[in-house]
Amino acid sequence: MNKILLIGCGHMGSALLTAWSSKTNNRFSVVDPVQYKKINQRFNKRIQAFKTLNQVRDFLLFDVIIFAVKPQIARSVLENFKSRQFKKSVIFISIIAGKKINFFNQFLPLRNQFIRVMPNMPAMIDQGMSCMVPNHYVSRFNKNKIELLFSKVGSILWLKNEVEINKVTAISGSGPGY
User: Fold this and answer.
1) Do residues 66 and 45 make contact, with C-beta atoms less than 8 angstroms apart?
2) Single pTM value for the model
3) Cβ(119)–Cβ(96) under 8 Å?
4) Phi/psi zone of residue 86: left (φ > 0), alpha (ψ -120 to 50 degrees), beta?
5) Which residues pair with 159 in a beta bridge?
6) Would you place residue 5 in the very low, low, confident or very high pLDDT band (cuts 50, 70, 90)?
7) 20 to 30 Å CA-CA from 50: which of 59, 66, 81, 106?
8) How many CA atoms lie within 13 A of 115 on its CB side?
9) CA distance 81 to 103
10) What contacts 177, CB < 8 A, 6 or more positions away?
11) In the sheet that 154-158 helps form, which strands lie side by side, from edge to edge?
12) Residue 100 pLDDT > 60, yes or no?
């Protein structure tokens, strides 16, 4: 069982949370200033939802931290992570379109384990396609953990480099919407 913190719970974050909460034994906490009340009601407080990051007491508890906010607010959200403490083994995930791993490195600990993932909305019905690219610090254990998590919502494809994920974003991430 992993403790997972989901930052942002819009369309994609909510689709993933719904699937994962019913198909895994992971424990979830969510930060979303708009959806936190609905999440607490919908999941009968099985999932802790907070309005702000400051309400999260201890970031050292989390095994996985997933960023699922709009690209235009990513910088302001990540500014809050500069002074936080994390487990050495924590794996950071981004499903934010267009934000490269180097962008996140400005705000996260040195030598962090980071995977950029581009899922798509068919994940809502377990038919999604999640393309992933890790940085070179990701352990085999964490790679397997994240692969197992995203396989609950569809197929997985590991990419060789970050340039490939930008191509995938246009096709896989946006294509089903059209």
Assistant:
1) no
2) 0.92
3) no
4) beta
5) none
6) very high
7) 106
8) 29
9) 13
10) 121
11) 48-50, 27-31, 3-7, 64-67, 91-94, 113-118, 128-134, 154-158
12) yes
Residue 132 identity (one-letter amino acid): M
Return the residue matching tokens 């069982």.
Answer: 1
| Token duo for residue 160 | 């060789």
> Residue-wise over 57-74: b if at least 16 C-beta within 10 A, else e?
eeeeebbbbbbbbeeeeb
The runs of H, that is alpha helices, within 24-135 are 36-42, 74-78, 101-105
Q: Encode pLDDT of 110-165 as tens digits.
A: 999 999 999 987 677 777 789 999 999 999 999 999 999 999 999 999 999 888 88
Q: Under 8 Å CB-to-CB from 80, ≥6 apart: which residues?
A: 53, 54
